[in-house]
Amino acid sequence: MTDQPEKMDLASHDIAGEKRRELLNLFPEIRAEGGKIDFERLRLALGEAVDVGRERYGMNWPGKADCFKTLQQPSLGTLLPCPEESVNFDTSENLIIEGDNLEVLKLLQKSYLGKVKMIYIDPPYNTGNDFIYPDNYTESLQTYLEYTGQVDGDGRKFSTNTDTDGRFHSKWLNMMYPRLYLARNLLREDGFIFISIDSAESDNLRKICDEIFGEENFRNECVIRRGPKSVQAQFETWDRLGIAHEKVIIYSKSPKYRFPKQTRPREDVKSGTWNNHWRGTNRPTMRYELFGVVPDSGQWRWGKGRSLQAITNYKKMHLELGTKSLTQEQIDDYYLKHLESGEDIDFLRLSNSGRPEHYVPPAENTLLNDAWFDLPISSSKEVRALFGEKKVFDNPKPTALIKRMLGFGGKDEVVLDFFAGSGSTAQAVLDLNTEDDGNRKFILVQLPEPTGREDYLTIADVCKERVRRVIKKLNDEDAAREPGLFDENAPEQDRGFRVFKLAESNFKPWNAGVPHDEKALVRQLELHIDHICPGRQAEDILYEILLKSGFPLTAPVEMLTLAGKTVYSAVGGAFLICLERELTIELIRAMTGRKPERVVCLDEGFAGNDQLKANAVQFFKTKGVTSFKTV
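Below the sequence we write its predicted structure tokens.
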């Protein structure tokens, strides 16, 4: 630590720089002048493991190189807290972030690197009508600010993608590639990602995921049923068969990770009755006398020999159990006992009407495979029940689907969905936590796409309102239960969320690109004297400093009063943030007395007092503060 505090970096995580540092750490011999990498030395260090051929297997498309430029361009945005739109803002660890997900993913890199267990996304399917991305995706933050009216625009807009512009697939890949690349960084080593997709881009999605996650980390391509409207729409041109399914592609972060054993309930089979016939099949041999009855309008479900054997087994069960009347529980226990012994036994029982019914054993669990046709096609009914109206959001993903995905992880995990839509992921997390006393946390990211409605202006508004209503519904259900039904040792449910919105940084960046004339430079200096954006509150600045210092947005923060000034204490006092505009030596001493590890102050708080700044550096140094920065 010198006699001057270090300037805090307000940019998002430098991904390219981190990769370079990793390479130089592994291969110090490849360092060239200026800290750059000598690829010829790297090739020599790796030997035959390097492919130097001109023709290689891989996927390429127009704009792929720009994807990496997009990744390397840091974000200078911030996430502004919105307690008034939140539920339990001060205590909840759930997040709903309103903004362009590319910028948000960049801003989350420092704070959530390697902390997310599961990612689920339902991205635009590239049908030609979906709301997709900025036309100029390399200027994402600026375009987003213009789109949402936060700054004056010059014609840039978010747009749809059409198959008539000649770059239909390329544009979609350019949108998806950097987002998936950034998302992978956030996954834990035992993490995994689920992606919903249809046939239009499933092949391309598999290829870019093989490149980003590694082909060895591909796990499954599951199929789910598609909504009837989506299927019917494909018949309008009558040029191909309708597609009745969609896909869920699964990748893990590491090839060493193994999913826990997955099962699903075996489908219930209805008992056959005396007039239960096979539709469309006329089988005279299945009409025979049994219990004095010969069906005239139907037929028995079993052949005569099998039915007679079932009757024999049923009588045997009565004799073994020593009772004339059997409860369903007794029948189930008896059946399962013989089933475990390996016997193949058919049972027949009498219904209350005196007619025979073929016995069906209780439903059991079966191993889960890649055909998920047992799941509902959407959660439209759930959304309708919450909002009390039919049309709020088109084709929301079923919460049952997301609950199944959550079953691949534990009960205390972070779940990310950066194409959040109406908030199905949040509802699935909250519902499942209630069912199994889990403590899962969700992070949702949703673009404020206009809905054309007057009550919920954007899809982000629909998402927030849906989660509010889910929380109220669950709380009302708890309140209606008898006290004895609660498990006193169960963890307290986190039924809340914090809302943050993407915006420009609270601090005006120094613009090195201004014309080098006297008036322009004077103007730039004047702007930089008070470099905090007008209208920003202390909480806005606080959360930007937390985020860009590598702390999560849900980190507990305590407000202290030291030497008559306000100081924010985070991470149990290890990190102190002072946003006072007039710092004093008494305040510096009071902060050092708290023995923090890291301290950040506003640079303007020293008001040009270089002596006070130098003293602060020395005070913090002597007290073991490892990092003192100003912003």
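The chain has four domains: 11-70, 71-263+369-482+492-502, 274-364, 514-630.
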